[in-house]
Specification:
The structure is a homodimer. Chain A is α+β, with helices and mostly antiparallel strands. Chain A is built from four helices and eleven strands; from the N terminus they run H-H-H-E-E-E-H-E-E-E-E-E-E-E-E. The longest helix of chain A has 17 residues. Chain A binds a DNA duplex through helix 3.
DNA sequence: CAATATACTGAACATTTGTTTAAAAATCAA
DNA sequence: TTGATTTTTAAACAAATGTTCAGTATATTG
């Protein structure tokens, strides 16, 4: 169990968490000072040292904005929402166009959906049923640079969107379903007809009715 | 419509997004240089200027780690949101007690979660895997007066919570799993050891990692 | 072709940001 | 009360980080 925080330490810790969630980066020491009307940077600095000693944050000396919050994902006090587009039209050749013709947006509670999602899309077939992903589910997609083999991705092929397992081998991209009755698709890397939107980070399914 | 990015600009833009997602803060210019083996900070710097001019990022002069990705804007309005408790202890004899010892709350966007949910609970076993409900999923429960046979319900038996199919026949309540290896449970109607919390209206599953 | 944008290097410079030291006041527990 | 810890101020310094200028090379476009 971590050592308890003083009132001031907790105030500053909460501020750091809130700032980080809202701004996608931690505050500088001087920004903390401004928030709490500190006249000296050492006011905030010494509290940071205490927070680090007690195990709430980790820092690297001399690096700007280098407060790393421990157990960031277990945080239950913060309520923060991110609004992401729900896309409904698909265009592999021009992915940006998909974001101009939306089916509205969804607000997600970042306490639960904690991977900086990029957009949402409705699952259009049962090709991944074996993985518990069904037609009609809403898939939350997180864009990432490197996608590992085996990851479940959202792919756009021409004007169709699909959820499939991803495999890249010898510059060939395979989109592999998990259920029978669906074909594995094969593409050359760089094929303009294929756009990998990102990894599926969450599934939301409506059950009732 | 945003102006298209060059290959290099896109590489760097993707790197910034990935870094930000993984580190909860944007990279410094020198960190970008290191990633791409640039010898001069201006190599990255000039690309940042291009990304800003094309509307993909926003920056503030002279601030460390001040790349703001335009897609990542958080929304703080609370319209159409409902906050529900996430329960983690179970007590069939005294259900109200479960709501005093919470594991926090979740905010749901009522555009998606549109059935007046009552509370949320983590799925504790794989007894409903055939229905695509896995251990670790978050189940959103909606209380309702009439529960039809076949509905998927959240039931509390003594001090344990379960997701099962519901069946009421001849004043006997059956809790039926969908996967092999799990037993059907049978109760007399009115049994104090059983509390039906409501129907499962949504399932949220984290996939990545 | 010329003009323009992109992609980089190199070196200095400016500003922000983190760090240290010294000290005073406030708080809290023994 | 006494002593330890916390909180805060103040000032100077060190390091990181962003910015600018000058220049080369390559591709792209009209």
């Amino acid at each position: 169990m971590k050592e308890a925080l003083t009132k001031r330490q907790n105030q500053i810790f909460e501020f750091i968490k809130k700032y980080t969630i809202e701004n996608h980066k931690p505050p500088t020491i001087r920004e903390i000072c401004k928030k709490f009307n500190f006249k000296s940077t050492n006011s905030a600095y010494s509290v940071l040292k205490a927070l680090e000693r007690k195990g709430y944050i980790q820092r690297t000396n001399l690096k700007a904005r280098n407060i790393n919050i421990n157990d960031f994902k277990l945080d239950k006090t913060q309520i923060d929402l991110k609004e992401i587009p729900l896309i409904s039209t698909f265009d592999a050749q021009n992915p940006l166009r998909m974001f101009t013709n939306l089916n509205g947006t969804i607000k997600l509670d970042m306490k639960i959906f904690d991977t900086l999602p990029s957009f949402a899309v409705e699952v259009t077939d049962d090709g991944m049923q074996k993985d518990g992903i069904f037609k009609g589910d809403i898939a939350i997609i997180t864009q990432s640079l490197e996608i590992k083999n085996g990851s479940i991705v959202f792919a756009v092929i021409k004007n169709e969107g699909l959820i499939r397992h991803y495999k890249n081998e010898n510059n060939e991209i395979y989109l592999i379903p998990s259920s029978r009755g669906y074909e594995t698709l094969k593409f050359k890397e760089g094929d303009k007809n294929l756009w990998i939107g990102g990894e599926v980070s969450f599934i939301i399914r409506k059950l009732k009715r």
